[in-house]
Amino acid sequence: MQHWRLGLLLGGSIAVSPLALDASLPAFPAMAHSLGVSVQDVGLIVSIFLLGLALGHLIGGPLSDRYGRPAVMYSGLGLFVSGSLAISATDSYAWLLGWRILQSVGAGFCLVSAPAIARDHASGEEGARLFSLIALVTFLVPAIAPLLGTGLLKLAGWPGIFTLMAAYAVAVKLVLRRTLFRSYPVQPDRSKPLHTLVTDYRWVLGHGTAMRLLIILALVFSVNMLFLTHASFVFQEKFRLSPATFSLLMGATVGAMAGFNLLNNRLLRHFGPAAILRAAVGLQALATLYLLAVTQAGATLELFLPGLLLAMGTFGAGMPNIFTLVLDFFRDIAATATALLGALKFSVAGIISGFSSLLVAGDLDAMVLVMAACSGMALLLAWNAPHAVARRHAETETRGNGAETMPGSGGLSGSAPCFRIAARPAAELRHADGWSILRAERGPVPQAARFNTDGGVPPSASGKNSEAPAPDRETGMSSAEEVPAGPPLPAPSGA
Q1: What is the pLDDT of residues 408-422, one digit of tens each?
Q2: Taking the domains of the chain in order of start, what are their residue ranges?
Q3: Under CATH, to which class is 3-183+207-385 assigned?
Q4: Which residues cross the membrane (predicted)?
C-alpha cells in the first residue's frame, strides 16, 4: 500500500482520540449545567480519558503483537462505540466518568495498534516521514472537532457530540475492513509463550535510552494536556470568549502543530530526528517561559496567544521523531514498545492534569508555571538525546556483529525475537535517530561504521578509505574518534 494512503488510514484511526477530547470541549459549560456539577468537575473527563488511554495501551500493545493488529483495532473501535453511546444516554456524573473510561480504553487499543502497523510497513527515516504524515492527518481532527462540537451543541445538545463520536468509529471500522485489513501482510507470532506479554515490557523498561525518550514525550505532552484541561476556563471565562471564537482559537493551536509537523518533514532531509527533537523541546521551553512572564505582567489575549501557539505547536515536530526513534530499538515488539510510549505519555499527563484541576483551581499563573516546569525538565533530558541515541546504536553495532540482542536470542533466556542489523540486505542502513551505518557490499571495510548525531551525510560506502572521516557537526569530532571500529560485517546474502 502506498504510504500516503496508509498515512490517511492510520491517521483517521488514531483520530478517534482527539475527536473524543476536542469535540466535547465547547460543551463543558452545558454538560456542567445538565449534570449539576462545576465546569472544573467536567474538566476531569480529560484526565480520566488520558488514564484510560494509558490502560488501553498497556493491555492492547502485547495483545496486538500476539493476536494481530486487526483484532485489537476492531476491538478498540467496538469499545469506543459502546462507551460513546452510553455517555450520550447518561444523566449521571458518576456514570459519565465510568463510561468515559470504557471509551478511552477502546481509543487506547486504536492508538497502540496504528504506530505498530506503521512500523510493520516502514522504518528509519522512511518511517519518520510516515509518522509525520500520520500526525499531520491526526492534527486535522482537533482543528475541526471544536467547531463540530459547537455546531452539534446547538443542534442536538451535548449528547449529540458523543453520538457523532460513535458514528465516526463505525465508519473507520468499515473503511479498514475494506482496505488495510482485507489481507494484512504481517501475521502475529502466536508461538511465543504467554508470559512474554509481560516480559517484553521488562525488556523495554530496561532500555535506558528508550526510557529517556519516553519521559521526554510524557513531559512535552503534559504541557499540551495541561492547557487542554483548562482551555475552556482560559478562553471562555478568563478572556470571555464565545464558544464559536473559542473553537476557532483551539483550531489555531492545532494548526500550529500541523505547521511544525510539515516543517519537521522538511528538516528530516537535512537533520536527524534526535537533533530536531532537541530543538523542538527547546522552543517549547522558551515559549512557556514567555507565557510565564506574560501572565506575571497581566496577561492579555494578544500577548498570551503567540506564546501559546508556539508552546503547543512544537509538539507537532517532536512527537513523530520520538516514535520512530523508540520503535527502531524494538522492531519485533513494536506494539509493546508503542504501548509503553502511550501508557507513560497518557498516565503522566493524566496525573499532572488531574492534580492541576485540584491545585490550579482557575489560577492562570499556576497553570503556566506547571507547564514551564514540565517543559524545563523535558529540555534537560532532550539536550543530550542525540548523543545518547547515537551512542546506544554504536554500542549495538560494535557488539556481536551489530545485533540488538533481545531476551530469547543469542542464548539468553526468554522468547522475544532477535533484531539483527547485520542481517538486513541493504548496502546502507539509515536509522531515524540521525545516525547511519554504512556497509560495503563485500568484505570488511575500514571505517565501516559512521555515527552522526545530527543526521549529516556520511562518507561514501564504497569500501575505499580515500577520504578522511567528516567531523560531526555536534561535537567537532570525527566518527572514527567517537566510535571504535567493530568486528567486520558480513557481506549481504547473495553477494
Answers
A1: 443 333 333 333 333
A2: 3-183+207-385
A3: mainly alpha
A4: 42-59, 71-89, 101-118, 130-149, 155-176, 213-235, 241-263, 275-297, 303-327, 339-360, 366-383
